[in-house]
Amino acid sequence: VQLVESGGGSVQAGGSLRLSCAASGYTGGTKSMAWFRQAPGKEREGVAVIVTGWSSTHYADSVKGRFTISHDNAKNTVYLQMNSLIPEDTAMYYCAAGTGSVFMTAFQALSPKAYNAWGQGTQVTVS
């Protein structure tokens, strides 16, 4: 699976951005897709997950109520709508694909270990 992110950029606090991640190649084994982020000097953090066949979602506590993950099956694309952005959201955002099922706990789903394909990342800067 190849993943290509887009939609990052610079925005003022309180603003919104929508990230996109297009998947190509063999996607038949993909059951979950996720967004992670990594700020300089910090570990990679799970932000949002969607189990594609079920539309089941998980979110990090820090983004609940502000971010929404969605998936377009026809386009093999996952989106992350980010509203009410704050400076602490500044990071490189990565798309990931994995084989985890709807039976994953939130802890499992938001762990990088659950994913075996990664995009190159797109930068989000909030000032």
Description:
The protein is mainly beta. Helices cover 3% and strands 48% of the residues. Strands 2, 4, 5, 6, 9, 10 and 11 form a seven-stranded mixed β-sheet that branches. A four-stranded antiparallel β-sheet has the order 1-3-8-7, with no helix packed on it. A hairpin with a 4-residue loop joins strand 5 and strand 6 (56-59). The longest helix has 4 residues, at 106-109. The radius of gyration is 13 Å and the shape is globular. The N and C termini lie far apart (34 Å).
Task: Quickly count the helices.
Answer: 1
SS elements, strand count: 11
Calculate Rg over CA atoms.
Answer: 13 Å
Strand content: over 45%
Tell me the series of helices and strands, N- to C-terminal.
Answer: EEEEEEEEEHEE
Backbone structural class: mainly beta
| Apparent shape | globular
Describe the main β-sheet briefly: 7 strands, mixed
Spatial gap, N to C terminus: 34 Å
Given as residue ranges, the uncertain stretches (5+ residues, pLDDT < 50) are none
* Mean model confidence by pLDDT: 93
Helix content: under 10%
